[in-house]
């Protein structure tokens, strides 16, 4: 019964996110809106963490299985990915370095 409640709260946030995304005049991922809604509800304590904890743990435990279809779908685009591999690696490395520099700078400012 507890898992049903957990999934109902999470699913309700997702469905509200889908409704909001449909009303927006621009494209925005409904799942992100649903996550922001869930975060807001948790932050304001309108939804208690205990109400979604068990369901969230179950989803996290099986998350690797959810990525298998995506990985299999990417195999059909192997030629496109191999052509852009240099750019993908450059973008990932540049992003990583920028994030490390930014976090390091923020930490220095917070400590001093």
UniProtKB/TrEMBL annotation:
A single cellular component GO annotation: plasma membrane
Pfam families (UniProt xref): LrgA
Location of this chain's protein in the cell: Cell membrane
Keywords annotated in UniProt: Cell membrane, Membrane, Transmembrane, Transmembrane helix
InterPro entries linked to this entry: LrgA/CidA
Residues passing through the membrane, by range: 31-51, 58-78, 84-107
Chief location category: membrane
Signal peptide: none
Name of the featured protein: CidA/LrgA family protein
Keyword Transmembrane: yes
Membrane-related topology note: Multi-pass membrane protein
């Amino acid at each position: 019964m507890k898992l049903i409640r957990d999934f109902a709260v999470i699913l309700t946030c997702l469905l509200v996110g889908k409704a909001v995304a449909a009303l927006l005049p621009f494209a925005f991922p409904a799942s992100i809106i649903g996550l922001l809604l869930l975060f807001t509800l948790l932050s304001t304590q309108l939804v208690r963490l205990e109400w979604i904890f068990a369901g969230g743990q179950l989803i996290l435990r099986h998350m690797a299985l959810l990525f298998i279809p995506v990985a299999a779908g990417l195999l059909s685009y192997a030629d496109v990915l191999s052509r852009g591999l240099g750019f993908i690696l450059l973008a990932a490395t540049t992003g990583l370095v920028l994030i490390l520099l930014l976090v390091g700078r923020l930490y220095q400012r917070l400590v001093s």
